[in-house]
Design brief:
The chain has 194 residues and is mostly helical. 79% of the residues lie in helices and 0% in strands. The two termini are 34 Å apart.
């Protein structure tokens, strides 16, 4: 079922019926590697998702970036790919003075950084939120506020459980979003227009 999901919804539907087959192994690997490593963060005591550290996220984004650029250059040639990425069609030629640097910065430099940052930041933030809820609960449960503090610690436990299940949902979504964006980037580099 997992393979069918990645193949049909992330490969065929986004990249296209004629082009998607060579990229299925990479899409499948991205999706399930990120998903399994994110879910490691939900196992009590272990709670160490690989992608809550920036190095892993940036390595995956670098792989996605290299493949995306390679596929684009292979399809359109070196110059054709960079023209496609920096010169949108149907724009007055005068605007290219402003658009070429902006599109280069946006598509070639910022895209891989934000691709990795999206996964890293959400995994890191989820763990920080759980730690804050646990710290809040522990502080209240030590009896600092008397009976009111101990009663408030029950709220902290409920808050922590809510954040925990929210983080599990976000871990699944992040695997999907990273792979979806990679498929969209591939589709953009394979298509003929801008």
């Amino acid at each position: 079922m997992g393979y069918g999901f990645v193949r049909n919804h992330l490969g065929r539907d986004i990249i296209g019926e004629k082009e998607f087959r060579p990229y299925i192994p990479l899409l499948f690997t991205f999706f399930f590697f990120i998903l399994v490593n994110n879910l490691f963060g939900s196992i009590p005591v272990l709670q160490l998702p690989t992608f809550s550290h920036p190095g892993t996220a940036y390595v995956f984004a670098a792989i996605a970036y290299i493949v995306w650029v390679f596929v684009g250059i292979k399809r359109h040639g070196f110059g054709g790919f960079f023209v496609k990425m920096t010169m949108p069609p149907d724009v007055p030629k005068v605007l290219y003075i402003v658009l070429i640097p902006l599109e280069f910065l946006s598509n070639i430099i910022i895209r891989p950084v934000t691709h990795a940052l999206r996964v890293f930041a959400t995994m890191f933030a989820g763990h920080m939120a759980i730690m804050v809820a646990a710290g809040f609960t522990a502080y209240l449960a030590t009896g600092v506020g008397g009976a009111l503090g101990i009663g408030g610690s029950v709220f902290g436990v409920i808050l922590g459980l809510f954040i925990y299940f929210l983080e599990v949902l976000i871990q699944i979504l992040q695997a999907y979003i990273f792979t979806l964006l990679f498929a969209v980037y591939l589709q953009g580099s394979l298509q003929e227009g801008h």
